[in-house]
Batch of 2 targets.
Target 1
Amino acid sequence: MAVRHRLIHAAPQHVWAVLADGSRYADWVVGTSDSHVARGPWPELGSAIEYTVRIGPWTGSGTTVVRRVDAPAELELEVDSGPVGTARVAIEVRPWGAESLVIVDEHPLQGIGGALHNAVFDALIQLRHRDMLRRLANVVEEHAGAPTRERA
């Protein structure tokens, strides 16, 4: 199970403001070079973001759809990365004093990711989540005017 958390030094409404801004998706999602809202007002149920991933000379694209939302505490997404497959990504934002505890839970559903899902695959997802949560914290703390703290 690929679950990771991070304390972000900003109030939950600041975390949600970043999560709810579809134009900021590429700022905190690891591997994403650009993104734009493709359907509906993000992050309403059924709305979607299209994104581009660049790894060296290779470029791929995908779509992320909101499958469940309970603003400002929960956002559940289905990420479709084409041939790599789909994954469920749940993001929970909990008040933690004046700060926020953000929990990310990801599970591959279909495609290569779903077929190869095992403990090693989860470990790789954990590494990506560590970087994603660090990036999210930096974006949120900058947005909130809080001092950023680089931690893994």
Target 2
Amino acid sequence: MAATMISEFRDGNYTADEDIPKVFAKPFFTKETAIAAANPMMKKVFNLDLTGYNASSKYNVYTFTKKGKPTVTGSINHKGVFYDFAVTPENGLIN
């Protein structure tokens, strides 16, 4: 499952692919703030609570994992707004 908020990606919110390593050289969020920022949208769109998840990042992409739960990846724009999410079931299969 995936969801994209185009308004948070286009126009002034867009970061060119080649600029991503420079713009996001330092993580925008800590583990806790990434979960807090992503959780409202995850609950609203996917009915999934990220409480208790672990978070890691590479540039503008955050990965949220928890044993026995789906893996979530989310991308942020340069303002720290999540605009793109993908949810993969733990076993990699959609029921």
